[in-house]
Amino acid sequence: MTLYKALHPRAIIEFSYRYSDPDEAYIYVAFSVTNRVAELDDIFSKLKANGMRAIDISHNEMAKTHARYLVGGHKEVIFLFLFFLCLFFSYFAQLFQN
Question: In terms of residue numbers, what domain contains 60?
Answer without folding.
Answer: 2-97
